[in-house]
Design goal:
Chain lengths: 369, 446
């Protein structure tokens, strides 16, 4: 995987033809290899040609499942280190399982944005289990906690796969401002295209300055066409056109961007509802996925966001972004258990490949182990 | 509304104390437990909550409170004071350099709203007769430069760009030169969003910092951020020595715990808050007023300032006279609606009024659409009808409904509301009189 980036860097450097930059990039490269993170390299480059070459190279290197998984783990490492070391420290400092231990565990969970109510439920369940199974070793408590979180999050019949079969499919991407909708769409388009799907994007964010250009750039990178109107146009009309184009071109997946909107703005939510209705009416035969994009750094407000967006647009899945920071995204435990909306994708970086499927087992494991 | 659920929860927790003649330690404990939960649910940092509750408790259990005649009120007063302390006590303004240009460096995570806020800040400074220059240093995010250009155009502020192939440090340096040459006295540098743990990018912004030596380093933070807000602020502060914070998206329904924790942890003031997507919706942050707002004590000062900035003074005087003499007509009402609209979203304004607590506002959905409807109805009335609504009989109502594309029920509703508004106006004028007598905004809060 890194070879690919190095190659691309060289190409880019030639284009830039600036000594300074080469030096910088080299430094950056080594650092990135260490960090197991690839971000800016892709972002800097711009020409389409280059992109297409880059893409071919990716396609050549097909079997890279392991590195993808590593990437997810890499993204979660910080999360893991933070929570886990705390839990380990706490467990080490106790000789027996007592109330104070539970109090401390409670604190750890709350600081991970798990939320007061969910934390209390978890701790209560844990207390029960400890009593029932007569656990006396603080170390064993960790396994139990892991188990309890998993239990809370997993629901029978919960499908963590994107609803895109059979084609045609439409993915409506919604969320509040600045969570990373456009970036997620870029990554998703790239990913689906690599899976051999014919993908089309509709630029429904006609409000924010330069949102359309941003999406078009991502479309370029992924090699996917973007249907757009000008800034200030009616977003519902853009989506309508997107649907007509998707039908005419017989695409497999149409991804619709929407403007970021705070969920307490009723007029904006009404607008979203109109968009949603148009997808229902005009593309009824399509398989539908409504993805709510959530920022992992968001605290308990994520619950409100999910509830309101769900009322307006029938959310079928969640994409959790920015999980490569120190934020723990603990709120999704509550989200999944209370609202029964599965997290389907996680964003772990700014690179075009940094979008991964969400796997509960791995998530819980990565957090606690 | 800002801090809506937090204020509701706190009001609930404290209402149990109100009116109690005697407070036991247990009463305080119970209330503090609820305060603690309310704060935690509002995403206030765990450690901050712990300290806060400890401080309030210590003071509340002290003898001065227990022995006073209204111990419940005393506790509320303490909570208010401690809240204010948490958020910093006074409004913090932008520090301008004695030898211009003043350089302002914007930093923060991805998606916090740096570019939009940069534009808003430029607009704000322009209104203060400054000549700001916006600098596009985000070379990574696609179309980020274009976004700043569009924003700059909207607020009519020049934007300095060098494309996305030049090192941001060099862009910043060149911008400084450019600004000096062109007489810009404030230079606002918009940077790329970066994770506080991204070593490479943090180093880059450190380099920008040392290259331009900014007067202000403003951390832009999303008000919806959870417990991590403190980590982010601490990291940026450590690397760059931030001078203040701009809290964005505060017009959402986030409980804004981040606002409460930030100051406590970094000791850096919140200088502005973003209150909407429009470019004039950046407001100075008044910690003391915000604390009052959280506790449902209203924020009359902000309301008055807002009104002063947006309402035609002459018209207002006329209106005042009319209200006093009870000659308020539909024409005035129409006028007033126009002016209200320029004040901003209605629910925000109502939230600033004392006595209207967040619970009362809940479920009240005053949208701009309703206002448009009301305007249509009034505009379908004849001049006579507007001056004397009493003459509107059922056939007139039918006509008005047809003319405005509404129903008779809507017209009836408006007529009824108008009567009530008139009554309320009278109350307000009475209240104002008592206010003047007292000379201070000493409302009977609870």
């Amino acid at each position: 995987m890194f070879k690919w980036f190095k190659k691309k860097d060289k190409k880019k450097d030639e284009i830039f033809d600036k000594e300074e930059l080469i030096e910088e990039k080299d430094e950056a490269e080594t650092q990135e290899v260490e960090d197991d993170e690839i971000d800016e390299n892709i972002n800097v480059e711009s020409t389409v040609n280059e992109l297409e070459e880059g893409k071919e190279e990716v396609e050549d290197k097909a079997p890279k499942k392991i590195s993808l998984f590593e990437k997810l783990m890499g993204g979660l490492t910080k999360t893991r280190k933070d929570i886990s070391s705390k839990i380990d420290n706490i467990l080490k400092s106790y000789k027996k399982v007592d109330e104070e231990l539970f109090d401390d565990l409670e604190e750890v969970l709350v600081t991970a944005d798990v939320g007061v109510n969910t934390t209390m439920t978890l701790i209560d369940n844990l207390r029960e289990r400890v009593k029932e199974e007569k656990v006396s070793e603080p170390k064993e408590v960790k396994e139990l906690l892991k188990d309890e979180i998993k239990k809370l999050m997993t629901e029978e019949n919960m499908d963590y796969k994107l609803n895109i079969e059979p084609s045609p499919a439409i993915i409506l991407v919604v969320g509040v401002n600045g969570v990373g909708k456009t970036t997620t769409i870029g990554k998703l388009a790239y990913r689906l295209k690599r899976e051999g799907k014919k993908v089309l994007i509709a630029a429904g964010d006609t409000f924010r300055a330069a949102a359309i250009e941003q999406l078009e750039e991502w479309g370029n990178r992924a090699g996917v066409d973007v249907i757009s109107h000008s800034e200030g146009a009616d977003p519902a009309a853009v989506i309508f056109d997107g649907i007509q184009a998707a039908k005419a071109r017989k695409v497999d997946v149409l991804i619709c961007d929407t403007a970021g909107r705070l969920h307490n703005k009723s007029n904006l939510m009404n607008e979203l509802n109109k968009i949603f209705r148009i997808t229902e009416r005009e593309f009824n035969e399509a398989t539908k996925e409504v993805l709510l994009v959530l920022d992992a750094t968001t605290g308990q407000n994520a619950m409100n966001q999910a509830k309101v967006f769900n009322e307006v647009a029938n959310i079928t899945g969640i994409a959790l972004t920015k999980l490569d920071g120190t934020a723990k995204g603990g709120v999704i435990i509550a989200l999944q258990s209370e609202l029964k909306i599965p997290v389907k994708l996680v964003g772990v970086g700014e690179g075009i490949e940094d979008l991964q499927p969400f796997i509960v087992e791995d998530f819980v494991k990565a957090i606690i182990d | 509304m800002v801090f809506e659920s937090l204020s509701e929860k706190l009001q609930n927790a404290l209402s149990k104390l109100r009116g109690k003649g005697k407070l036991s330690e247990k009463d305080v404990d119970m209330a503090m437990r609820e305060v603690r939960l309310a704060l935690l649910e509002a995403d206030v940092n765990f450690k901050v909550v712990k300290d806060f509750v400890k401080n309030v408790k210590e003071r509340a259990i002290g003898s001065e409170v227990m022995e006073s005649l209204t111990p419940g009120q005393q506790v509320i007063k303490i909570v208010n004071e401690e809240l204010t302390k948490l958020m910093g006590e006074k409004e913090a303004k932008i520090n301008f350099s004695p030898s211009p240009p003043t350089v302002i460096l914007m930093c923060g995570l991805q998606g916090a709203g740096k570019t939009t806020t940069s534009g808003k800040l430029a607009f704000n400074l322009k209104k203060q007769n400054k000549r700001p220059l916006l600098v596009a240093c985000d070379i990574y995010r696609p179309a980020a430069i274009k976004q700043l250009e569009v924003v700059g155009e909207k607020v009519d502020v020049p934007v300095f760009t060098m494309g996305n192939k030049v090192n941001p440090v060099d862009i910043a340096k060149a911008a400084l030169e450019h600004g000096k040459k062109h007489g810009n006295d404030v230079i606002i540098i918009d940077t790329a969003g970066r994770l506080h743990i991204d070593e490479e990018l943090m180093e880059e912004i450190e380099n920008i910092h040392s290259a331009v030596n900014p007067q202000e380093v403003l951390l832009v933070l999303d008000a919806m951020t959870g417990q991590d807000a403190v980590n982010v602020a601490e990291a940026f502060n450590e690397r760059l020595g931030i001078t203040g914070v701009i809290l964005t998206k505060l017009d959402g329904d986030a409980r804004g715990g981040a606002a409460l924790s930030l100051r406590a942890v970094t000791q850096k003031p919140i200088k502005f808050v973003g209150m909407g997507e429009k470019l004039d919706q950046l407001e100075p942050f008044h910690p003391d007023r915000m604390a009052s707002r959280i506790l449902g004590m209203g924020d009359v000062l902000s309301l008055i300032e807002k009104a002063q900035a947006n309402i035609d003074a002459k018209k207002a005087l006329e209106l005042e006279k009319k209200i006093r003499t009870q000659q308020f007509t539909f024409d005035d009402f129409l006028d007033q609606l126009e002016q209200m609209k320029s004040l901003g979203p209605l629910d925000q304004i109502l939230g600033m009024l004392p006595g209207i607590n967040s619970k009362a506002l809940k479920g009240l959905d005053v949208s701009e659409k309703d206002i448009i409807k009301i305007q249509a109805i009034i505009q379908s009335m004849t001049k006579k009808e507007r001056e004397n609504p009493d003459i509107i009989d059922s056939s007139r109502r039918k006509r008005i409904a047809r003319g405005s594309g509404t129903t008779v029920q809507d017209v009836n509703k408006l007529l009824k509301q108008f009567k009530e508004t008139k009554k309320m106006m009278k109350k307000f004028t009475d209240m104002e009189k008592t206010l003047k007598k007292r000379g201070k905004f000493g409302f009977p809060f609870f």
